[in-house]
Design brief:
Elements lengths: L3 E4 L4 E4 L2 E3 L2 H7 L12 H16 L9 H13 L2 E11 L3 E11 L2 E8 L7 H11 L6 E7 L5 E6 L2 H19 L9
Parallel strand pairs: 6-7
Antiparallel strand pairs: 1-2, 2-3, 4-5, 5-6, 7-8
């Protein structure tokens, strides 16, 4: 049986000891995510908020309470979602991996929810499409959950399933061409 290991500190996935790219890495290296403009410390803040939300979703008391955690609690109360999996890592036979924030039952239907702490980005639907590929379910409903330190949240569904899946697959093909030896440039 194949073993997928996620090195959380370095954000690396290993399948049987071999590094495999993540959904986010594929989107970055194919030119879709430009993280040069991310605020310093935003990744660390996002990781910390995810940890707190994970604790809450598991029914634990978080070791810190803030506006983000209050927004997340309000979301859980308002939507009545039932988390099925929290921070679960998956591998796709297309040779990439990723960790989904929440797979849940929402109105008796299985959905993917990705928690966001920054402002809306155009690449979010493609990221969620990559996650749907991880569980080999292009029809699963996909949502982003923007939570703010103001205790507010925004729950957004992405309905362009085919278009988003095609966008992610194009990014994967670009990544494969550039980083897995499929691209040969002739500059002579």
């Amino acid at each position: 049986m194949r073993e997928l290991v996620f090195d959380k500190e370095n954000h690396l996935y290993f399948l049987d000891g071999r590094i495999v790219p993540s959904v986010t890495e594929i989107l970055k290296k194919s030119g879709i995510i430009d993280d040069r403009f991310f605020k310093e410390g935003s990744a660390e803040k996002g990781t910390r908020i995810h940890e707190l939300c994970e604790q809450i979703a598991k029914g634990e008391e978080p070791d810190e309470e803030n506006g983000y955690t209050k927004a997340f609690r309000k979301f859980l109360f308002d939507t009545k979602i039932e988390p099925v999996e929290i921070e679960s890592s998956y591998y796709s036979e297309l040779d990439f991996a990723g960790t989904m924030d929440i797979v849940a039952l929402f109105r008796r239907e299985l959905v993917i929810i990705d928690i966001k702490t920054g402002g809306r980005q155009e690449w979010w639907p493609l990221q969620l499409a990559g996650y749907s590929k991880l569980i080999d379910n292009n029809d699963i409903r996909r949502f982003s959950l923007e939570i703010k330190n103001t205790e507010k949240y925004k729950f957004t569904e992405y309905k362009n399933k085919e278009e988003d899946a095609a966008g992610f697959m194009n990014a994967l093909e670009t990544y494969n061409q550039l980083y897995r030896g499929g691209f040969i440039a002739d500059f002579c």
